[in-house]
């Protein structure tokens, strides 16, 4: 019994001891916070907010994410343990897999940060990265954006970027979908609509892209056992239809839907 108590005490001390966790910021700098091994994502994020001296407004519009694939970060659940994820994915190739990313969709909500220098800096760097990777389609504005980048005019850069196709969207990795017998889909969540971009099983883009307006989506849910996200949408003159998307990121997809609905309700 005494031995058991000693083991319990050792384990408890181990979980409560301070450890360093590196967080990649949007401006490509790394911030190191001292946390406990068993701190949740909410607790770690609070430590990051304090370390960076983020305002309350900014703190509501960012959160911790895990880089899981090239150009794709998954938002952590509030009760997940970032240190466990950090250790499991530790690699000498990258400083950390835990990253700070914006967690805001509508331009109305984002505009509240226009006078916040730290938030603007982070939003600028995220936009810059997405322009460079092609997720934000700069097209004929590319030269102007490059000029603003070279002049370090972040606010002006964002003013243009915010109105480009792809800004504020989350593009999920391609996956199977029950509405397609052959091939996959790329789910794209944004404030204007929810898109399903057709692609081949290897992710090669195809021409078809279906847009679902938020007002037409009657409901949505997740099925943990089958790792699916499903949504029901209305069809003019027809019975509504349910679509199932088979993705390991089904919880994050639901989080995106929830967040967009919350932000849209704030605007009404």
UniProtKB/TrEMBL annotation:
<feature type="domain" description="Ras-associating">
    <location>
        <begin position="17"/>
        <end position="105"/>
    </location>
</feature>
<protein>
    <submittedName>
        <fullName>SNX27</fullName>
    </submittedName>
</protein>
<dbReference type="InterPro" id="IPR000159">
    <property type="entry name" value="RA_dom"/>
</dbReference>
<keyword id="KW-0446">Lipid-binding</keyword>
<dbReference type="InterPro" id="IPR029071">
    <property type="entry name" value="Ubiquitin-like_domsf"/>
</dbReference>
<dbReference type="GO" id="GO:0005769">
    <property type="term" value="C:early endosome"/>
</dbReference>
<dbReference type="InterPro" id="IPR037835">
    <property type="entry name" value="SNX27_RA"/>
</dbReference>
<dbReference type="GO" id="GO:0032456">
    <property type="term" value="P:endocytic recycling"/>
</dbReference>
<dbReference type="GO" id="GO:0032266">
    <property type="term" value="F:phosphatidylinositol-3-phosphate binding"/>
</dbReference>
<dbReference type="GO" id="GO:0007165">
    <property type="term" value="P:signal transduction"/>
</dbReference>
<dbReference type="InterPro" id="IPR037827">
    <property type="entry name" value="SNX27_FERM-like_dom"/>
</dbReference>
<dbReference type="GO" id="GO:0006886">
    <property type="term" value="P:intracellular protein transport"/>
</dbReference>
<keyword id="KW-0967">Endosome</keyword>
<dbReference type="Pfam" id="PF00788">
    <property type="entry name" value="RA"/>
</dbReference>
<keyword id="KW-0472">Membrane</keyword>
